[in-house]
């Protein structure tokens, strides 16, 4: 088995399971070094083969974390390292990776579009990682020119993908009209959903928001948005923590994601794979995934347009919704399935090994 070290991922989540399992079939074994931000990585990791893969929770203290990373690197060699570079310890990792002569790539998860939200030191660390990595794996089209401008050496575009359920439940009881499954972060607009739930035309419908975090683990802006939702929640809106969304998708008619960046959002792809019709805002690359009125709805980047689009969706006849639901599922099955993703990842890994 060819070994890969995933370094600095903030949590090992349900969405990572299928990806690891698929790449295992290509002969790869993973050591996952996580900061375990949500304290639930072990819950999902235990579903993997413990003889092939390893999980390490990194200490919070920077020097203890650095020592733990050095121990992991000594346990190599690895085919390459996959570095999540937005953490405060990235500047400590970089010279160590150089010292061990590691081949490594940066996993660009969206930090390039949110640089203004980070401290000066973190921005410096991320930019240094882009410049010195052997390659950067990015997942959304808007990232390419920004990474070029930061001096990234080699770029690989491998968008996210989703697993089609074994038995798609198109006939399931859809008792949730609008579903949100995401953290309440600054590049998304959860306030729009809260206010839409009070709209006279939508107030009789059911809305559910999943992704509320413990206050102690929240960034200030995220906490502010959570408090706003809790203080202004109308009767038809239910709020939930980080819970497994896979039992929720088959219950939902529409998936709502007003955001600065939409394409490649994992929850969006998962929902579409379950036949949930997406309602999103116009953003870079969204036309690669959603055609307005065909397999979902695309609103302009403003609250008025998004709420109007929610009303438009709510008025759909059942037969029209069923056609759009099948089209959403078909998009994932044809273009954003895990087999395609796995083959693209394997090609990237093979090139990196040369």
From TrEMBL:
It comes from the Bacteria. It comes from Allopusillimonas soli. One of its GO terms (molecular function) is transferase activity. The keyword Transferase applies. Coiled coil: none annotated. This is Glycosyltransferase. Keywords: Transferase. Pfam families: Glyco_trans_1_4 (PF13692).
């Amino acid at each position: 088995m060819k070994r890969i070290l995933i370094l600095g991922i903030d949590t090992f989540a349900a969405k990572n399971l299928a990806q690891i399992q698929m790449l295992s079939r290509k002969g790869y074994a993973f050591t996952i070094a996580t900061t375990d931000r949500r304290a639930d990585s072990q819950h999902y990791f235990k579903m993997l083969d413990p003889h092939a893969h390893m999980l390490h929770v990194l200490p919070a203290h920077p020097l203890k974390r650095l020592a733990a990373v050095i121990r992991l690197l000594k346990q190599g060699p690895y085919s390459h390292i996959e570095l999540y570079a937005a953490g405060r310890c990235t500047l400590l990792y970089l010279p160590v990776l150089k010292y061990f002569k590691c081949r490594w790539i940066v996993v660009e998860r969206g930090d390039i579009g949110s640089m203004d939200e980070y401290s000066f030191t973190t921005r410096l660390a991320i930019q240094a990682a882009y410049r010195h990595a052997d390659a950067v794996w990015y997942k959304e089209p808007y990232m390419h020119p920004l990474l070029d401008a930061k001096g990234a050496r080699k770029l690989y575009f491998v968008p996210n993908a989703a697993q089609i359920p074994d038995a798609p439940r198109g006939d399931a009881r859809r008792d949730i009209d609008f579903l949100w499954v995401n953290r309440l972060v600054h590049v998304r607009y959860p306030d729009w959903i809260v206010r839409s739930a009070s709209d006279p035309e939508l107030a009789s419908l059911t809305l559910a928001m999943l992704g509320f975090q413990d206050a102690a683990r929240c960034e200030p802006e995220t906490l502010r948005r959570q408090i706003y939702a809790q203080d202004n929640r109308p009767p038809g809106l239910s709020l939930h923590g980080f819970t497994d969304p896979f039992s929720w998708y088959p219950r939902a008619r529409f998936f709502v994601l007003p955001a600065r960046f939409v394409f490649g959002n994992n929850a969006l792809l998962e929902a579409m794979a379950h036949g949930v019709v997406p309602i999103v805002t116009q953003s870079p690359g969204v036309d690669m995934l959603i055609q307005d009125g065909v397999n979902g709805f695309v609103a302009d980047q403003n609250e008025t347009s998004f709420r109007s689009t929610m009303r438009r969706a709510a008025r759909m006849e059942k037969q029209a919704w069923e056609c759009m639901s099948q089209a959403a599922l078909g998009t994932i099955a044809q273009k954003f399935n895990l087999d395609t993703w796995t083959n693209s990842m394997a090609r990237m890994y093979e090139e990196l090994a040369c």
